[in-house]
Structure formats: structure tokens, C-alpha cells
């Protein structure tokens, strides 16, 4: 079995920010759930089967996800339909996966035994057709990439599975035989969004070597460089951060030559649902760097 990492709650939050998620942290999320004493060894993706979960309605399952298993959350994350509705509910391990297994790769047998080792994602969706939207796919993928990089999961992506995969076991989890709970979970969307789909989407947002040096640039310095159509450390750091997050395809030019990539800034703003004007606004800095620096 691969070496297991035990991430802290602060590390989880920072990894999510570093991978550019549009994060809404539910009040008290950092204290909910159990510590990952067995390591965060996998992620299970599922959907809510909520008929009212349609575009323009955010995350109608939020109340259920917070209260149904209180004081635990139903899952670590609930991904709504619209920008600003990607909710992180529990930084610690929580109930989600239910009965399934076995899964030898993460050291569990049969039963309701996976939830203390696997991050749980619920996508707010009716679950009757190919209706998970672009926003939801990106937010799930960025989260998966963050956890993959943080926990150093195997490069084949085998720790990313659907709820139906866990229930059925067998070839879905690298096991010779199906488990006793096969078909327990009617994972209706697996035909459209299977484990390979999520693994491939997550690969788009993984960070191998970060270009950004970790220093948050001042917005004022960025604005000054834009005003004179020039380059400085601030504009270079903006470009590096956008490149790391996958919002800019081209590698930044060397320090002193890299201007502010206003087009990439605008694309990033659009992707996280804030005013898209290509300018270094306070909202943009919070989404891009985790906090503002005027």
C-alpha cells in the first residue's frame, strides 16, 4: 500500500485555494468531522438526486446536506449549479459513502467503512440525465486536483471514484470480485460521468511545479504597471498565479518583461462568477490569492 499522508484542515483549505476553486466555506466547516487519522486516501463523487437542482437555483440541497446527519455533514462538499454555490461543509472526515467494498488499495474491507478515509462530494443535480453543468464539473475537478496533489495519490488517478464504484467494488476498485453490496446504490449518472471522466477532468487542474512564488502582489502596483503598459513583480506574480491555476495557457515571461495578462484575468473572473473586466479588483484578489492586498 502507498504511504498515507494525514492532511491538516488548514492544509486542505490552502490546497483548495491554490487550485483555484470557487469556494464557499460554510460557517464552522473547519471544525466539523473527524481528523484524517487514517489519511485522506480517496474521494467519492456522487449526486443528490434533487429534482429542483437546476441552473439559477444555486444549491437547493444545502439545508439537507448540513442537517440530515447533524452534527456531521452529509458530505465534505456540496456543488451547486451556479457560481458562488460550491459549498465546503466539513474539513474533517464525515459520513458519505455508505456500505460497499472491499477496497484493498486503501485498506478497507466490506461495510460502511470508507467514510473516515475518503472525501465525499455531492453534486446538486436531479440525476436523471446528462445535466451536471460546466461550473459543477470544473469545481469538482479543481477540488479533486487539489486533494490529489495534497495527498500525493497514485498518478493513475485510481483514488478518484464514484459512489457506485464503491458500492459495487470488483473491477471498479481493482478487486477480482464484486462485493456483497453491488447495486445497492443506483448511481444513475455513472453512465455519463464515470471514474475515468472525473480523473481526466482533474488532470487539467493539477499543479506540478508552481510558478507563483507565494507572495501576494499589491493591487496598486499592478494597476500602476497597467497604466503605463509596463511590467513589474506584481504583474509577473499575477501571470504566474493564473498559469498555475490553469486560467492562462502560456507560461509567463521572465520577471520584468511579463505584463498583466488582462485577457486571462477576465477569463478567470468569468469562471468564478465575479465582474469580468480584466482589472485587479478586490474581489479578484480574494478569489485569485485567497485574500486582498490593496
Mean pLDDT: 94
Give the low-confidence spans: none
What is the quaternary state of this protein?
single chain
* Helix vs. strand class: alpha/beta
Distance between the termini: 47 Å
How many extended strands?
6
Shape: elongated
- Largest sheet strand order: 1-4-3-5-2-6
The percentage of residues in β strands lies in 5-15%
| SSE topology string | HEEHEEEHEHHHHHH
Biggest beta sheet summary? 6 strands, mixed
| Residues in helix, % | 25-40%
**Structure annotation, total helices:** 9
Rounded Rg: 20 Å
Q: How would you explain this protein's 3D organization?
A:
There is one protein chain. This protein is α/β, with parallel strands linked by helices. 30% of the residues lie in helices and 8% in strands. A six-stranded mixed β-sheet has the order 1-4-3-5-2-6. The model has no long low-confidence stretch (mean pLDDT 94).
